[in-house]
Amino acid sequence: MLSGFKDLLWLASVLKDNLLLLVFLLVVLGNVPAIRGRSLGYLLRVCGFMLLLALLKNLNIFSAMLLSSGVIISVSLTLYTPRYSRIKYSNLSLVPLVDFFALSILAVFISSRLIEMITFWLVAELLGFFLIAYDYLVSAERTALLAAVKYLLFSMIPTDVALFIILALTGFNEAIHLPLSEIRPDLTSPIITLMLLLGFFSKAAVFPLHFWLPDAHSIAPSPASALLSGLMVKMGLYAIYVIESYPLDTFIASIMMLFSGCLTAIYGGLQAIIQQDIKRLLAYSTTSHTAAIMILLSLYIISGDVLFIDAAVLYAVTHAFFKSALFMDSGFIEILTRERDIRRLGYVSRVAATESLAVMISVLSMLGMPPTIGFLAKVITFMSISNYLRHSWLYVLLLLIISIEISLSIVYSVRYLRTHVENTARPPQEGLDLRALRMTPCITMLSATSVGFTFIIGIFNQVTPYKSEIFLELSPVLVTALLAFAFLSLYIHEIFKKGSEGQ
Amino acid sequence: MFKKPSSLLEIISHHTQLYLVSMSLITSFSAIISSSHILSEVALKLMLMLITVVALRNALLGVNHWRYLLIILTMPLFTIFSHYVVSPGIGTTDVVTLIIMSTLLGLYLPIEKQSTSTLLYGTLTQFSACFTISSAKTLALELKGAYGIILSIIISLMMLVIGLTTPNVLEKPLKNVLILLESSIPINKLSVPRSHLLKLDRLSDSKRSLALRILTRTTNKLATQPVIATYRACLWIIFKSAYLEENIIRVVMKVSRAMEIAERRVEISLTYSLLLIGLLTTLALIVYAILTAITR
User: Cα–Cα distance between A392 and A380 in angstroms, integer?
Assistant: First the structure.
């Protein structure tokens, strides 16, 4: 009896030291076919993801913020995917793929050593490949295979080359034994800097290696698109953040990042405006937003001001939240209406009032309305650039580009909102698949979190001292905005509900 | 309180507008009271959102269709202006910038005068934007508390007056020219090109009625050639302004499509290049392995 207890204590101490292993075990157990679609399966998977939050305290700001937002997105998705998979594919085979994909991406953000990061990165990429090709695997959809091959060629290979260059320059021994922050690979050669950045640009879907993204994100199943767009492109940005702390050719790096960032921010936004497919619209908007984050990261290289990192992190988290929620919504619309063309939609709010409200909150977060996390991100982005306006014309130009990007995002987000609230469109004659309504709580939860996260950041003080000060000054405005926003949301929900009752 | 909105999108935009108006007013007041530059910047950000949302709403709902193109330029334009305004000190450039901004606000935030409520609502929106700018300027001048609020309100009211009058001032000369033409030119003797008549149908209601009034009410008295030329020039300006937006959108669409095609071609060539490189590398490795095995 005593030895059994000792064994248990030993097991507990081992698990405490290997929390990721415990998380992995819980997710594996939650995905056992017998319980995958039952409450126990859901509980195990949710607990598994939530446990990752215990690793927050040892992480840098970029990893910590991406991990915390990633956990919330993964929890929403682990609840959403079984419903989606059961309706769309009549089985639950998509669930383990999505769960392990999410887990491997989160593992990249919490990796303390280079070798861990590369290993989890490769696993995530491989799972991403299978998820993009999923429709080919289950129904021989050729376009899915083509999109996956494109992803393999233009996203996986260049990134892997970049990762192996870092590994080669670091040395295998250091990569295994030293923490990421202590290794010092010499990346000062312009060619090396160029190759590394091109590799990570391909993952972040920034010009010139961006064209894999619209196809991959629009063809993959919606939970996978939510992860690809919400979290996976952030891996590219995270890698750039990591290499920024190593010696590299800062001139080449900043020029490349600024040029590609500015070009993609405008190009992605313009493309998003003219898309008629909701998923392609979201996919192009991802390239535009990612480019804006890259501009902020490049300004950190130029100025060394950590406020740019804070702005980039907040922007990345905001994007992760609203883009995952909107991709989940696109899956909902696809199942409900069997339609993805904006011109033939517009009646969703008359069928699913709560869903439309959730989407409206996500769209408002994309627009940067208080009190969503998007507001905080946009304010800090503007502030960080405004502080330097008198230093150089470059900052004025970049402020203009960021504001054009935001203007474009306002135009296409309203276009997206029209899929829900355009009055003239009529539902199809063959009827709607109302089973889709089962997915609504997951999307609503994620959208509501984007509001709550603004306050969580303040409460847990996961920010630099300067930004804490900003948050303190903003708190009365944010609280007022929260009250007004709650009132506005309830009022609009009532209007939607009246519309759906009339329907 | 407000005009009954006709669509859900209009309801949402109306309420979002109201929400932004109240938030920017609250934030500006808080900024002056607490002398916080951070809050002042936040208020400016809210004002930028407000102007963009209103411009977009007007474009979507057809109130100011011709301004659709300017939506994309709204935020950059006002961002730059507002950052120049909030610079410390005051000079001639600040006064000029404030006048330009007031005029732009008058153009971007048009006041619908159908009813008292819409008039009040529009005026409140414009006042909120003016107050945000003026409070930021007052704060930049280190004026705090009651003095700051009073000065901000005075500047805002002046901006509001400029904003309300300047677009009207610009509108009136054009109307006068058209009325003058209407009374003096016998339009039925004018040879209006058929293409222009067809284009008339596609104009917005107000412009069409104005143009049709010119066409129908005129007599047989034909004016001199310069008057005809002036009339045609006016017509030309109306048609061109109406089609400018359409043409630019068409160009943007064409450029986007062309870029998409170019993107596909680059993608295909890159795919084949990568496959070729992969194949050649594999072959080279095999040859190298065979040669090494033979020579060993």
Answer: 19
In angstroms, the CA B253 to CA A498 distance is: 38
Q: Is residue B36 part of a domain?
A: yes
Gap between the Cα atoms of A97 and A363, Å rounded: 28
Domain residues for the domain of B259 are: 185-283
Asked if B142 and B224 sit in the same domain, the reply is no
Whether B107 is covered by a domain: the verdict is yes
Quick check: is B56 in a domain? yes
* Chain B hits for A493, Cβ within 8 Å: none
Q: How far apart are CA A407 and CA B56, in angstroms?
A: 10
| Interface residue A410 vs chain B (CB under 8 A) | yes
The alpha-helical segments, DSSP class H, found in A171-277 are 172-177, 190-204, 212-219, 222-227, 233-244, 250-274
**B237-273 confidence digits (pLDDT tens):** 666 655 665 666 677 777 777 777 777 777 777 777 7
Residues B189 and B160 in one domain: no
Is A128 in contact with A232 (CB distance < 8 Å)?
yes
Q: State the count of interchain CB pairs (< 8 A) between A and B.
A: 131
Closest-CA residue of A relative to B18 is A488
User: CB atoms < 10 A from the CB of A176, how many?
Assistant: 12
**Alpha carbon of A368: minimum distance to chain B alpha carbons (Å):** 8
- What tens digit of pLDDT does each residue of A158-197 get? 898 899 889 888 888 888 888 888 888 888 888 889 889 9
Top residue of A345, A403, A405 to mutate, by most chain B CBs within 10 Å, is A403
Interface test with A, best of B75, B245, B260 (most A CBs within 10 A): B75
CA-derived radius of gyration, chain A: 22
